[in-house]
Write a structure and sequence with these properties.
The complex is a heterodimer.
Chain A: H1 2-6, H2 10-23, E1 28-34, H3 35-43, H4 46-49, E2 54-61, H5 63-66, H6 69-79, E3 84-88, H7 102-107, E4 111-114, H8 119-127, E5 132-139, H9 144-157, E6 162-169, H10 171-180, E7 188-192, H11 193-199, H12 204-211, E8 214-218, H13 222-238, E9 242-245, H14 257-266, E10 267-274, E11 278-287, H15 296-300, H16 315-319, H17 351-357, H18 360-367
Parallel strand pairs in A: 1-2, 1-7, 3-4, 3-5, 5-6, 7-8, 8-9
Antiparallel strand pairs in A: 6-11, 10-11
Chain B: E1 5-15, E2 18-25, E3 28-33, E4 45-49, E5 52-57, H1 59-71
Antiparallel strand pairs in B: 1-2, 1-4, 2-3, 4-5
Classes of the chains: A alpha/beta, B alpha+beta.
Amino acid sequence: MKFQSEYRDPVAAQKLLQAIARTATRPWTIMEVCGGQTHTIVKYGIDELLPPQVELVHGPGCPVCVTPLELIDQAIAIAARPDVIFCSFGDMLRVPGSRTDLFATKAAGGDVRIVYSPLDCLAIAEKNPEKTIVFFAVGFETTAPANAMAVWQAKRRGIENFAVLVSHVLVPPAMTAILSSPTNRVQGFLGAGHVCSVVGYEEYEPLAQRFQIPIVVTGFEPLDLLEGIYRCVRMLEAGRIGVDNQYARAVQRSGNPGAMQLINDVFETTDRKWRGIGVIPASGFRLRPEYQAYDAQRRFQVHQLQVLESDECISGVILQGVKKPKECPAFGKTCTPEHPLGATMVSSEGACAAYYNYGRYRSSQTTNV
Amino acid sequence: MCLGIPGKVIETYREHDMLMGKVDFGGVFKRICLEHTPSAEPGQYVIVHVGFSLQVIDEAEAQLVFSFLKEMDELGELETPEP
């Protein structure tokens, strides 16, 4: 039993599970949006410990997974140029593009570097004035302050050999898209704790009212998740709508106003394409006009690349919570973390990789025998 | 990249007009931008996302979160060397 060996406080976990089972009188479907939460849920088997009437579905909260193929292909095209040093967070290097990935581009001679912080790119730019340093600015609201600061600093310090390939995405519009879909089954959400530590949760309040649902801002440790699920089930059973904050020790309603100010100085909202889902209105950031000199897409004219998506990968419906990884015919067979067909198998925050890494593929294989 | 990692502020300084700090993540030291937690002082703990501190938290919470992230094998980004 996972409880005894792996939970920090198995007694508290057991009590929360019993409370959830006692409280849930009918079937409820709850979505966790954050890929870090998905990772915890699958590693600790939380979804399998819940009573059968409470189903967890995994959302699109993995920035690596939802970065569209066009952006991956553009990154690869830019990284292959001899006049470029291409910098990225490590998670992006193995994401499959149409034909190759950034790791292969590096192996073929492209100068591709993994950085810890986007500010490191400015140091690289100052040391390499003959090259253009391009940073792959991906992520949700959590990485936006850092990426905004790098661009703001570059302009302030007159660093001209620096540009960003922006693929920022935002959580609330994705929740709106999921809730608006005719195939939606989600009745309550666990909000992403660390995203809310930046942006707060005021924006979630009108969303909860509009769709008449509960949203519980939740942390990412097992007990946080169990408590978040319990609070969400309680609200569902009572017919209560609105936003509850399970993660008050790290999240305030207004988030981090200084970080938000910087984000708004550098970025503006734009429609964004999400891999596997399509275009979601006003769901991402792009550079404001006064920062367009730092836009790598404009600088390198990579808009027109033709893309070729795998026809085997069903990550789009997995990212919307419509299907689980084990329902994909390629899962664990032609698609594994070593040879991923789609981004959900690349990142530790992707649902497919989490299922595979924690042995969930075995049961799917036995059902096929 | 979405999970913030807690660390202890060792010293603070200004660089390029930004508040910066040396932060200790369980024995790994990193240069961190503290601009968004201007009240952070040496001895306090901050939650850091990709080199940027976004919250001050208490020590007990920091220890819990750090050990959990270690258990989850989510500390890999700290191994990235500085340029």
